[in-house]
Write a structure and sequence with these properties.
mainly alpha, two-stranded parallel ribbon, 127 residues, 4 strands
Length: 127
């Protein structure tokens, strides 16, 4: 009984046991890996890969092609330089820029540091 419970705890996830589209349930159509198809033990790895890809890509060309109304909110004391938001604001037609001063909750999490001001700005933007 003890050995059996050890096997259950150390068993590999189904996707690691299967090969060439075969699993214990029989043949299945292979799906592309993603957050909805990954088992719970792999979702963290998928999220880490997605975050890494997002952080290491150059988005300069993409920013200039945004055709929708865009609200940019940042803080003067944020780890993300507020000047990067000003740069995006200059390149996105019709965008709106709001920079919180440090005394107004202008660090990284403006929505938590000054929720009343943040919510008012978002509500005004949405109309």
């Amino acid at each position: 009984m003890r050995l059996q419970s050890l096997r259950v705890r150390t068993a590999k996830p189904l996707h690691a046991r299967s090969s060439a589209g075969y699993s214990r349930r029989g043949f299945r159509k292979p799906r592309k890996p993603g957050p909805s198809t990954a088992c719970s033990c792999c979702r963290g790895a998928y999220a880490a890969r997605l975050l890494y890809d997002n952080a290491t890509q150059s988005w300069f060309g993409v920013v200039t092609r945004i055709p929708l109304p865009t609200l940019l909110i940042g803080g003067k004391a944020s780890q993300i330089p507020w000047k990067s938001l000003a740069w995006m604001h200059e390149r996105i037609p019709g965008s709106h820029l709001e920079i919180f001063e440090e005394v107004d909750g202008g660090k990284h999490f403006t929505f938590m540091e000054n929720p009343q001001k943040f919510n008012r700005i978002v509500a005004d933007f949405l109309g």
